[in-house]
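Thread: "does anyone have the structure for this chain?"

Original post by V.I.:
We have the sequence but no experimental structure in hand. Need at least a predicted one for the grant figures.
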Amino acid sequence: MSIVFCQFTMAQSKTTRIRHMVVFKLKYPKGSSEEQNFLIAVKKLSAIPGVEKFECMNQVSKKNKFDFGLSMEFANQQAYIQYNNHPDHVAFVQNRWIKEVEDFLEIDFELPE
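Reply from O.Q.:
Generated one for you, tokens below.
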């Protein structure tokens, strides 16, 4: 078995695609109307410019406490920064995410070419 280490240079990270992922657990009971309303609202983030390959998924593993996952891609780091700073994203985080999410784990990857 061989082990391959990821190696990126600073020049690559400016042009390399980014996959942004987050798994989360809501404060609401599973199947509740509040849960459904949150999931409808979170899917609207896919309309923010720069977001590609948006997915909202049910997390099924018993190995962690999270219920849902989001995944999206960006053409590069700049597109990801623009998404993070977009008024719709900022408003969602302030008005929904902070108030309604019990716990989460965010992970961002540079995608190999």
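V.I.: this helps a lot. Residues 31-48+66-102 form a domain with the Alpha-Beta Plaits fold (CATH 3.30.70.100).
O.Q.: and The two ends are 23 Å apart (CA to CA).
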